[in-house]
Amino acid sequence: MGFDDVTRHCAIHKSIKLFLILLLLSPAVFADKPDLFLLKTFDNSQNVVGWVMSEKFDGIRGFWDGRQLLTRNGKAVNPPAWFVADYPPFAIDGELWTKRGDFEHIVSIVRTEKPDDRWRQVTHQIFEAPDQPGGLLKRLSIVDDYLARHRNTPIRIINQIPITKQLQVNVFLREVVAKGGEGIVLRDPNTPYQTGRLSSALKVKQHLDAECIVREILAGKGKYKNKMGSLLCQMNNGQRIKIGTGFSDKERENPPRIGSEITFKYYGLTQKGKPKYPVYLRMAR
Description:
The protein has 285 residues and is of the alpha+beta class. The protein is 22% helix and 29% strand.
């Protein structure tokens, strides 16, 4: 082995060693994506009498694994130490939230690398305790028992309202939307904890929403000259759609990156199965 080969070998060895050290010292950076439950969409055909319903909070998904706070995609959140000082030693799942219609603000708070005093506006609205036995209400009662002994915490359990008549769903939805809320969630309280997109956990909104991947940024014309005009996006089923409304001027100047995931709303499907009137909502969370 020549001198150059030895030098190259040493450099590779040092790089591998450095990577392993960083891996050990920075577990949050390489956190696994948590295996969570996801919501399906309610279509009014399913009988949900005997279920429970709650407001759907428009925040950032916050999964506490017993040691650290993670987003839905497994990215570590960096709250102030006091925020999680009295968190339980077991997993809880919910939304990091401030108030209705405040999504961009909560994103700014949660994504700030150095946490600031704005975290005092944040509550952690809990809808699950994944590792606990029994149905939903039993699992949440474990969190309630813990909070009775640890009151100095931003954790709040989302109120689950029993559904005794199917009509309650639309009445409650109208109440929540009238207050500026995003929608509601229906859940079968007798189902043990499961992950993935569930038929026992349904979202109800006045419009539908979905996610797609940005594939191309299309230039604007007229008043949007030299800005983004629309996005060409690909849905999970492979369909491509163009989204050109719902963006602020700031978002048109700095559009979502190619390859990023966004959420859009729509109003039913066309005869070809494509979303009608897609409107940009936000970056997917």
